[in-house]
User: Fold this.
Amino acid sequence: MRETRKGMLLVISGPSGVGKGTLFKKLLAQDETMTFSVSYATRDPRPGEVDGRDYHFVTNEVFDEMVKKNGFLEYAVVHGGRYGTPVQPVIEAMEKGLNMVLDIDPQGALNVMKSMPDCVSVFILPPSMSELRRRLEGRGTETPEKVETRLANARGEIALKDKYDYLVINDDLDAAYEQLKSIVDAEKQRSKRYFPIIED
Amino acid sequence: MRETRKGMLLVISGPSGVGKGTLFKKLLAQDETMTFSVSYATRDPRPGEVDGRDYHFVTNEVFDEMVKKNGFLEYAVVHGGRYGTPVQPVIEAMEKGLNMVLDIDPQGALNVMKSMPDCVSVFILPPSMSELRRRLEGRGTETPEKVETRLANARGEIALKDKYDYLVINDDLDAAYEQLKSIVDAEKQRSKRYFPIIED
Assistant:
């Protein structure tokens, strides 16, 4: 049986602290058809983050240069830092028929959905706002003011959840991952991406 | 956590002999959120088929009466018999927020997709035409001429596969079922159907 497939651009988003990064990493580790691209960021690395693996940590000047060259699929100011998704790796992946997943803040996700309307967008929700607060505080890296800012942002981001194709509540990580995996597996079977050739 | 969901109408179709009935029954047995409606048919029951369970087997006169009353979501002539999907059970299920699955021939499926554009449509494909022939002959209920007619129809039906949302190849039954289940599970998470309420 012969078949060809078009590449899928999967956008995983959700409020800060919801666990989208964990779901993103689990998907990349378990689904060998998924590739990723490294975003650019102007903020300082968090403990354990590695330049070129978690983000390309760059100066404001380098970031400005990328913006000028139209090098970003989207970029946004989030919690005081600037983040950008480089356009070139996404274009290359789609041309090769590879699947690519982006872990991206809601502001950036909405921009990607506008510029790449064929993307598959998944918004990760917390089971409750009090649980989201608990997770943000549990990080131990956020000042109380930053926690309040992130929670206020989260309310606005959740209000726009219907802009996304799919919603997944991250209450239990394994259950949330199973739902995300179903979405990925289903979208691989979309007739607009999947071209099996039935031999006579 | 509170949530509400809108009902999903799932249409499973594919050429005769591809195994869509088996996948349909497995889904109904394993997914308790799925309901079904019994179609009307003017053909004779096959061995083992029960009136009111597999089909409402009716006379041409009763069928004509249903057509006159606009009682069918779709109806079609397939292989010499007439088949119709009653509209009332579908409307009732959607109003109650229940999921409903229809096992329906491709001619009828295309009609349902037109009248219910929000439905989720899945087309089941054989791995090859020779395998489809083997399955039709293996039924033991079809004359050689009927097999040829069904294979000729299958070619035309497969040519329209891109009209469906999703494609699943039924080579191995368990693998095909897993793909179908992923599609159903993913579609339950669609933001247009799924309305979680995140408490503050």
Observations:
- Chain A has one domain: 2-197.
